[in-house]
Amino acid sequence: AGWGNGGAADEARLAGQPPPPSTPVQREPPRASQPTGPMERARIHRFRPPAPPGLDAARAVALEFGKFRGHTLGEVAAFEPSYVDWLAKTITRDPELVAAARVVKGDLDRRQVHRRERPTAAGRSA
Fold first, then answer.
1. Is residue 44 one of the residues assigned to a domain?
2. How many C-beta atoms surround the C-beta of residue 61 within 10 A?
């Protein structure tokens, strides 16, 4: 009885190893995911969102990430206002930045500043 003849010798030689003994693994409990939607908290009882910053304060907020790192919202609004729109509707991890971007966006809207459409890459969410 050699290899490949289908006999008992083949089965004995090809038998798998028994599984390793199971030991309980200490894991942290599952976490909730990071929120990705709009930062609306109106449903929380007695929640009062902080007052938005004034326009001058909002324009002075410096970006700490992305292609405009180190620039203020006022500077970005002057040369690429569509990026301010993107910040106002997309960023969720920095409520102060979002509030400032919304104030600057509101000013751009009131002044009817034209924005070019920001293309989104295929397969990526904005």
1. no
2. 21
